Amino acid sequence: MTAQDPFAGFxxxxxxxxxxxxxxxxxxTPTAAKLVGFAGIAAGxxxxxxxxxxxxxxxxxxxxxxKVRGLDLSPVLIERAREHAGLANLDVDFVDxxxxxxxYGDSEFDVVLSQFxxxxxPRPDVAIGEMLRVLKPxxxxxxxxxxxxxxxxxxxxxxxxxxxxPEGVASPALWGDPKIVAERLxxxxxxxxxEMDMMTPSTLSPQHFRRTMEATIxxxxxxxAQYKDEPDKLSSFRAEFEALISEYFDAGNNVMRQQFLMTKxxxx
Length: 268
Prior knowledge:
It is a single chain. The protein is α/β, with parallel strands linked by helices. It contains ten helices and nine strands. The longest helix is centred in the last third of the chain and has 18 residues, at 231-248. The radius of gyration is 18 Å and the shape is globular.
């Protein structure tokens, strides 16, 4: 991040807000294995995990024998990732950094992955440009994202109505639309394929899940803080949010049903 970055302030807020994400790794760990499997990770590949968070994708790939590096905006999450790698006795190089300015050389990696990470970069063209820059020609890029018409995508839209992003910041949910993904990769990647899967976080009620999300998800943390002196607005938002959660809450199994999209392509 440089002084010339027009979104430096936005990223600083993101860095702070996402530092509380760690408890959610219990839900993102199984989906990490799905992304690594979908991408076809093999021993010996040089791999970069962009927006690596607590390292669940990176460590899963390293267990397969890949030579892995991971990068995330949050130093707090990077420290957690290092702890996980140490516990598993794996050599993974984790650094804090910006998806829009990757500190790696051109064509350095065989594979670039991102699980619910790169989609939060404010400029999709810059982020995907950087991910493809560091990928070798013919290398694999794969990522997991949230479709805009399903729970998480609708949550982003709800939060955006209460807390509009700065001008020029794209919605992260657009990365979950196959048509838009294809447009963003057009001329840069080939053999694009998609697959849907399901995350099933456990919860006891919509209210229980709303509380969990408010304590761990960056945009929600910021929104609740904004409304701390406006109880009526906070109450109104929570009512909307719990109604949305209720549509995807499987009361019979005490889980949320959160579908996500996986994308895979080869660098042209």
